């Protein structure tokens, strides 16, 4: 949609039990003192540490299932280490060594050694960076200068938002907790003293006041005294129900009476044999942690080291004194001194030359042989006085593997143009070196109840994935553990029409649908945007009877035409709304003022407010709801559950599915919410069709969406991803075909250039959801010139014909976790080209390769890599051999789409107006002559197996047994022939009829 402007106790003893021998249990569980490991699959092991030995067996909001098939494994204790080994993964834990951290737990998988757990404990006198701690509902931001580390914890804008740090008091007695914060004008429009609750070890928090600072760039400190015993404690800063929040917190420190605020940051170790992130080390001097250049590992990199800069990593577990390879991953572009030349860094005093890289987004590695003593020591990178002028990403200690993310996700792509920098993505499940830790420590229980507080006792709960290059296995493990992506109703995979423009029931009935039918364009879903509301078109809660005189009649009409409909919702209510008094009464007076003018917002964690919110929907009949998050401030104070995930689950209970943004919340990071919350990516896919927000109508955006869809799918398991086909925001100013009133002024809609429109619809035809949408912009074929109209009409009909195939692949995604749109490396992990082409081509299911053209002109071309096998052009019949490259050109009437030999593409045999009224007509199957393969066609309540053995097809009965089948047999010479069949089961010869 679009955006509106918004102003945006205490003593506890840590009791550590004596280590006990590891014990293997018949249910795939190995317990070693306070550590427990559950072997769920060869590539998935749960690692749980409970200082109080109270292990958690209930499901969580992330983890809805731990019932896996029995996995063969071995476990043993030798030399003080517990070793658990499966066929794919080895986990080692030092018995009795306490909570998991870098130096006491390691994994090995597919030749990679890693330390999945990072635990930062801030000793007395050490700087405790907010971004290194457990966070609840707050994100890390870096848009205000003066913060240290990677940034600061931003907002504390909602109840229960907070951070919890683990500290270690060096002695018993009185200590000071000092907080570095900024307090400017908040999202509520106020600039005043704020409060948070400071708690120790889970006891009742005390309220602390954080006085106003000059602005958000002005950082100050506030101090409070606590009495602590010697040892570890948990210190939390949380916005309670009586606190005002709305502050930024950079760091905190536990200090004695005479200690100054520290500059030395607490870190975890870098284990020998692993590759460690430079941003997790101790950085001193002018260098900063940054994220603005793509391609880095971890959460960032140390940016442009200069004279006086120092980066230190504490290296542990060096087996013996000796000289070992140390691998630096770096970028060396044009430095701040204007030079682009080889640079020198000093590694433990040894000069190392780093050759130039093409630019700052190009990363390289350099290896040096460095003497290290046995055990623990420091490895330090320093700069000559002239400066290093390089960026450092990782430091590998006797290790060269890089923990580089494959794909990533974000809450939305609002404002993306394709020319304003790549959107920063949050890594998810898949990495090139084949492992991941899903940290479930802070997730609530499955019913939304927060986990019990454990006081000072440490607790960790995480799932170690060790999959190597078996990426599909990892996605399968994730699906079994956290649930699969929701299978939408079949009609949802058809064609959607949406536009942010004032429409009426008569418009849809008398103009829009007849135009679809007249021009032979299919339609399955009508999206009614926000202007349908009475009172306030933004957040009103009744349908405007002057526009929709009979709301139920409108929905009944849509159903009668084979359509489904959705209504747009913004989650707040005006104080002047006719339904406000009832809603406030249902909420028992708890609705609070929001940041928008005279509006009230909902805390969906509160049952009364959730009931009030959901009841507002009852007067507006629809099939499902479009929750268009923006600017209003509703959310959820529920701990351990992302607000998006929570409310989207509620929407699924009152509609077919949730149609919304996902993964985080509006409160946690602005409109687009670029940062993650711990439960977001794992719970969201179970309920949600992810709407990716308001992009712009540019060639760059068109190209950028190619890689994003598959990137989100592989990183989270989300399969249902919906872009604004054509982009939302106009960039061309071309006059469109309609007029509308804007503050009394008559304005025209806008349109894209014909070539951009044609190419965008082509891409949309092969995306998970084909949803035409814009901000007062033309998106319908007949609103463009003859060639563009013909192209768009052809591809929208093709999309409708492909619904049986797409629905079948979507059902596979629900079961396997492998997304509908996927990068080639899921199917061909051993091919380097499968990784280098993720931004230019993708697979729709396992067998259809799509390489959209994203450049202007009547004829466009793109460079295509063909994976192993044989590939046939769907439109031209031309055959390409695998493991080759080709430049493929196409006019607007076709696009580069290819079918793998052995694969099958099932489509309707004729164009239809919609899916609902045409559920089981004749089907056409595209196959390659002489190949072997199989496809299962899924239809609600039944499956049809289609098996090819060379020149023979076997049809095994599904739900529909009486059906006309047509097989298009593609030959190696580019020709094809058609074979007809009727009904199933059947055996069909694919030889050309004589």
UniProtKB/TrEMBL annotation:
The keyword Signal applies. Coiled coil: none annotated. Residues 1-24 form the signal peptide. One of its GO terms (biological process) is carbohydrate metabolic process. Residues 126-255, 274-398 form the CBM6 domain. GO terms for molecular function: carbohydrate binding; hydrolase activity, hydrolyzing O-glycosyl compounds. Belongs to the glycosyl hydrolase 31 family. This is Carbohydrate binding module (Family 35). It comes from Lentzea waywayandensis.
């Amino acid at each position: 949609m679009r955006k509106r402007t918004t102003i945006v106790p205490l003593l506890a003893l840590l009791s550590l039990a004596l280590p006990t021998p590891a014990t293997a249990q018949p249910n795939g569980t190995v317990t070693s003192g306070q550590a427990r490991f559950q072997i769920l699959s060869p590539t998935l092991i749960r690692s749980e540490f409970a200082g109080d030995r109270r292990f958690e067996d209930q499901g969580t909001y992330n983890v809805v299932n731990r019932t896996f098939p029995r996995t063969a494994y071995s476990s043993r204790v030798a030399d003080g280490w517990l070793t658990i080994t499966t066929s794919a993964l080895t986990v080692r834990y030092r018995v009795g060594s306490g909570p998991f951290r870098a130096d006491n737990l390691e994994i090995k998988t597919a030749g990679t050694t890693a330390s999945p757990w990072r635990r930062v404990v801030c000793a007395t006198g050490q700087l405790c960076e907010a971004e290194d701690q457990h966070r609840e509902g707050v994100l890390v931001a870096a848009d205000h200068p003066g913060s240290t580390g990677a940034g600061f914890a931003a907002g504390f804008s909602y109840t229960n938002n907070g951070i919890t740090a683990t500290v270690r008091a060096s002695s018993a007695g009185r200590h000071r907790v000092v907080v570095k914060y900024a307090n400017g004008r908040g999202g509520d429009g106020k600039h005043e003293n704020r409060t948070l609750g400071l708690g120790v070890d889970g006891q009742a928090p005390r309220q602390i006041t954080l006085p106003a600072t000059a602005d958000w760039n002005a950082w100050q400190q506030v101090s409070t005294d606590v009495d602590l015993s010697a040892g570890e404690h948990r210190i939390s800063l949380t916005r309670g129900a009586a606190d005002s929040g709305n502050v930024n917190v950079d760091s905190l420190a536990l200090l004695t009476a005479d200690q100054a605020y520290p500059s030395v940051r607490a870190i975890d170790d870098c284990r020998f044999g692993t590759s460690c992130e430079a941003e997790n080390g101790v950085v001193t001097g002018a260098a900063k942690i940054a994220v603005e250049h793509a391609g880095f590992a971890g959460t960032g990199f140390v940016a442009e080291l200069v004279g006086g800069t120092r980066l230190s990593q504490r290296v542990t577990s060096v087996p013996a004194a000796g000289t070992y390879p140390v691998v630096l991953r770096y970028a060396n572009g044009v430095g701040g001194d204007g030079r682009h030349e080889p640079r020198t860094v000093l590694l433990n005093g040894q000069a190392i030359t780093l050759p130039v890289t093409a630019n700052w987004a190009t990363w390289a590695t350099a290896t040096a042989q460095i003497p290290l003593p046995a055990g623990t020591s420091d490895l330090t990178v320093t700069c000559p006085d002239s400066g290093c002028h390089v960026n450092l990403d990782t430091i590998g200690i006797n290790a060269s593997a890089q923990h580089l993310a494959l794909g990533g996700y974000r809450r939305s792509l609002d404002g993306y143009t394709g020319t304003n920098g790549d959107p920063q993505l949050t890594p998810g499940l898949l990495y090139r070196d084949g492992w991941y830790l899903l940290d479930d420590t802070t997730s609530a229980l499955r019913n939304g109840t927060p986990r019990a507080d454990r006081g000072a006792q440490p607790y960790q709960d995480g799932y170690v994935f060790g999959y190597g290059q078996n990426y599909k296995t990892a996605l399968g493990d994730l699906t079994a553990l956290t649930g699969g992506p929701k299978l939408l109703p079949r009609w949802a995979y058809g064609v959607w029409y949406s536009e942010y423009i004032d429409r009426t029931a008569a418009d849809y009935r008398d103009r829009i649908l007849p135009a679809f039918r007249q021009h032979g364009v299919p339609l399955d879903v009508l999206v009614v945007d926000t202007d349908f509301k009475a009172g306030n078109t933004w957040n009103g809660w009744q349908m405007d009877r002057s526009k929709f005189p009979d709301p139920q009649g409108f929905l009944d009409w849509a159903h009668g035409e084979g359509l489904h409909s959705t209504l747009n919702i913004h989650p707040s209510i005006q104080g002047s709304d006719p339904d406000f008094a009832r809603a406030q009464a249902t909420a028992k007076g708890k609705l609070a003022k929001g940041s928008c003018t005279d509006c009230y917002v909902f805390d969906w964690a509160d049952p009364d407010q959730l009931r009030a919110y959901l009841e507002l929907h009852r007067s507006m009949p629809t099939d499902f709801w479009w929750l268009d998050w923006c600017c209003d401030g509703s959310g959820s104070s529920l701990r351990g559950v992302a607000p998006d995930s929570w409310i989207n689950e509620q929407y699924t209970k009152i509609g077919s599915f949730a149609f919304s943004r996902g993964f985080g919340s509006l409160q946690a990071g602005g409109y687009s919410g670029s940062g993650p919350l711990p439960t977001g990516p794992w719970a969201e896919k179970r309920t949600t069709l992810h709407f990716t927000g308001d992009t712009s109508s540019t060639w760059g955006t068109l190209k950028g969406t190619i890689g994003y869809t598959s990137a989100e799918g592989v990183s989270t398991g989300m399969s249902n991803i919906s872009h604004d086909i054509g982009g939302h925001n106009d960039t061309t100013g071309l006059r469109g075909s309609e007029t509308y009133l804007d503050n009394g002024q008559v304005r025209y809609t806008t349109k894209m250039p014909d070539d951009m429109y044609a190419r965008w619809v082509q891409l949309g035809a092969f995306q998970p959801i084909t949803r035409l949408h814009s901000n007062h912009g033309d998106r319908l074929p007949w609103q463009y010139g003859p060639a563009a109209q013909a192209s768009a009409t052809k591809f929208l009909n093709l999309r409708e014909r492909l619904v049986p195939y797409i629905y079948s692949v979507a059902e596979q995604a629900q079961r396997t976790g492998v997304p509908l749109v996927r990068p080639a490396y899921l199917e061909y992990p051993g091919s380097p080209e499968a990784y280098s082409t993720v931004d230019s081509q993708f697979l729709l299911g396992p067998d259809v390769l799509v390489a959209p053209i994203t450049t202007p002109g009547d004829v466009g071309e793109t460079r295509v890599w063909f994976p192993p096998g044989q590939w046939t052009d769907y439109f031209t019949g031309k055959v390409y051999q695998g493991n080759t490259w080709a430049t493929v050109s196409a006019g607007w009437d076709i696009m580069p789409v290819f079918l793998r030999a052995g694969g099958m593409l099932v489509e309707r045999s004729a164009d239809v107006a919609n899916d609902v009224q045409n559920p089981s007509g004749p089907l056409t199957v595209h196959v390659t002559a002489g190949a072997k393969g199989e496809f299962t066609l899924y239809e609600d309540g039944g499956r049809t197996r289609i098996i090819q053995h060379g020149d023979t097809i076997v049809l095994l009965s599904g739900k529909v047994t009486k059906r006309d089948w047509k097989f298009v047999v593609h030959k190696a010479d580019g020709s094809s022939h058609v074979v007809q069949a009727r009904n199933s089961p059947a055996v069909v010869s694919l030889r050309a009829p004589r």
